[in-house]
Amino acid sequence: MNSGKDMRDLSMGELLKQLSTDTATLVRQEIALARAEVAARVNAVTASAGLLGAAILLAFGAFGAFTATLILVLALVMPVWAAALIVTVVYAVAAAVSALTGKKKITAAMPPAPETARTLKEDVEWAKTQAKSVRR
Fold first, then answer.
1. How far apart are CA 7 and CA 15, in angstroms?
2. What is the predicted pLDDT for the residue at 45?
3. Residue 116 in contact with residue 30, Cβ under 8 Å?
4. Which among 19, 25, 81, 111 counts the fewest CB atoms within 10 Å?
5. Could you give the CA distance from residue 81 to residue 49 in angstroms, rounded to a whole number?
6. Whole-angstrom Cα distance, residue 41 to residue 53?
7. How far is residue 49 CA from its own chain's centroid?
């Protein structure tokens, strides 16, 4: 922080300049930490994106075949249009429930970067002690 001088020997102007410099450095370090945390999360998520894409493509194919099977089975006991309508309504209800549940879970799973939040609290405490020592 300062270059060997005792803080008590510094003038008010020097103390304020030192506080300003230290605060600016601290803010830059916090921004760098937040960037590093976000980059680590993004890298972890994108690493498996190709496999997930292939799985989704195959799941769409399986879902289409399953839908056709359901409609054909129901068409054995009712008109085809009624069977297709029943399958569509069931899927719409399942989609609505899934969307609402997923939205709720995504909202709950997005906390701020924990390390940045912890160090910001420490920084506030440090700034308070620095401000108190400047006033004396």
1. 7
2. 81
3. yes
4. 111
5. 38
6. 19
7. 17
Q: Return the structure tokens found at 59.
A: 């799941």
Question: Tokens 């709950």 identify what position?
Answer: 108
What are the backbone angles phi and psi of residue 11, rounded to the nearest 5°?
-75, 170
CA nearest 100: which of 92, 90, 110? 92
Q: Is 11 left (phi over 0), alpha (psi -120 to 50) or beta?
A: beta
Q: How far apart are CA 56 and CA 95, in angstroms?
A: 16
User: Which tens digit of pLDDT belongs to each residue from 34-45?
Assistant: 999 998 888 878
What pLDDT does 9 receive? Answer: 80
Amino acid found at 22: D
Return the sign of the alpha-carbon dihedral for residues 42, 43, 47, 48. Answer: negative
Q: What is the pLDDT of residues 105-133, one digit of tens each?
A: 888 877 667 788 788 888 888 888 877 77
Structure tokens at 125: 């405490």
6 DSSP 8-state letter: -
> Residue 5 — pLDDT band, cuts 50, 70, 90?
low
